[in-house]
Amino acid sequence: MPSPPDRSNWLKGPKAPCDPVDPPPRRYNLVLLGAPGVGKGTQAALLSSRLGACHLSTGDLFRAARTLAPCNRTPALTAAVEAMQRGELVSDDTVLELVRERVDCLRCNGGFLLDGFPRTLRQARALDRLLEDIGVALDAVLMYELPVEEVVARIGGRRVCPACKAVYHVTGHPPRVEGICDACGTLLIQRDDDRPEAVRVRMETYLRATLPLVEHYRALGLLMSLPADGEPEEIYGRTMSALEQAGMGLPPPSTGAGDTP
Ligand code: AMP
Fold this sequence. Notes:
The chain is 41% helix and 12% strand. By secondary structure, it is of the alpha/beta class. It has a domain at 25-146 and 209-245: Rossmann fold (3-Layer(aba) Sandwich). Strand 5 and strand 6 (167-169) form a beta hairpin. Helix 7 (148-156) runs antiparallel to helix 8. The mean pLDDT is 89. Adenosine monophosphate binds next to helix 3 and helix 4.
C-alpha cells in the first residue's frame, strides 16, 4: 500500500522538496466537489493513503498561510486569510496564482486529488487550460452530495486537532476524552470558518459560486455523483465502485505468477 505522499511543495511553496513518489498501480487525477463539511477532506485523505495520489487542498494551503507571521505573508495572502476567516471565497486571482506556482504537483507521478479547488467557473476553466498546457487529463470529478441541513449539523459539531490535524465530531465521532485529541493529547479547536456566522456565508457561497461547476463537468462527461451519507469507509467503497464501473478500477493485485520468466 503506498504511503501518503509528502505535500511540501503544495503547502510550503514550489521550491520545497517532496518525497520521491513511486508510481502507484494506477495513477488517478481527480477533483473532489461538494459543499463544505460534506466529508471531501476525509475521503481525499482515505483515497490518498490507499491510491498514493497527492491530496491537494487549497483550504489547507490558506490555513498553512495563516500560521505564517504576518510579515512573511504577501498582501494577497493576508487578504486571503482574512477572507477565509469570514467564510468568504479567496479571490480567483490569488487562488490561481498559488495553483499555477505549484503546477508541478499536477504532474506528480502519484496523481492528484484536488480538494476545494476549483470552486468557481473561472477557476474550473483556468484548471482546464492549465492541464491542457501540461498535457495532463482529469480522470473524473467526484461530486459528494448531502442535504443542506445535514451539512450544517456536520460542520457545527466538527472539532479538529491543531497539532496532528485529526478530525472529530462532538456527537458523530467524539474523542475518548471530551475536547482532547485521542492521537496526540492536544486541546481540540473549532476552525474559525466552522463557526455559525462563517458557515452561513460558506453555504451561500457554495450554492452561488460552486454549484455551476456541476454543469461544467457534466458537459465534459467527467461528473460522478456520489451520496455522502454514512461512514467514511462506506463512502470510500461507493467511490471506488463508481470508479470501477466507469472503467477506472484498480488493477488486480499481482499474484506473482508469471512475474518471473
Ligand atoms: P476548505 O477547507 O476547502 O473548506 O477551504 C477553507 C476556506 O479557504 C474557504 O472557505 C475559502 O475561504 C478558502 N478557499 C479554499 N479553496 C478556495 C478556492 N478554490 N477558491 C476560493 N477560496 C478558497
